[in-house]
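From the shared-data thread, chain only:
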Amino acid sequence: MYKRLAVSFGALVICLIASLSAAVETPAELVNKPAFKVNDSWTFRISDRALNGETKERHVILSIVRSSSDSILQSAKPTDSSMPPTEKLLGADLSLVSSINGEEVVVHKPFDFPMQVGKTWKVDYQQENPVKGVKTHSVDLQYTCVGWEEVSVPAGKFQAFKIEAEGTWRNSFNPTPQSVGSVSQVDSSGAVVVVKNQKPTVAAPIVGRLFRTYWFVPEVKREVKSVEEQFTTTGSLSGKSTWELESYQMAGRNK
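Structure, as tokens:
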């Protein structure tokens, strides 16, 4: 009897240990908004690939200058620069708002807290006359929370919450005059004047694909890696930006 009790007790202990281990290793179901503090900072390695395949690498330090419940002021400074850092106002969820057509519009929102597997959200906007010749520039992105996975970056290995986004960019164009012929006329003074007949033409709109992937780590308070890709109308990669965390500092703790 005592032997059976000992075996049962031993099995119970093993089950409890296994349960506790599973609880420790299983990531939280909900990913909540981080609480930023002044002087939180992150150093990233950034690789930018151009349409011609050329890749340039740079390193930048991001730091929290000011934090509130609604927004943060973040500074950015290249590690090899002696110039003062630039500062940008972001949402408390790391979103970015820009003035478009006289209104404040969210143009970047990689996270929508609280996050859980299966959650989705959208970022879509249209900008009028962004550059000469372009009538409208539109972006339409659908974000999806994928789940937890291990990711390796220069700062180490992390259990990260993965978010993917897929969508399109679209440009429409302003009319451009096109000469279709000319005639000579004599004005009242007897001078010969050449008059060109012009007909406005409008180029067809063009559309390309966009892809985004982010790996968010709660203990780091932001993504430890991101990949943003843009494709041409023919499906060729026109630009790719990869950010990877090299080190970070949370409230005086160095990592």
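The chain has a mean pLDDT of 87.
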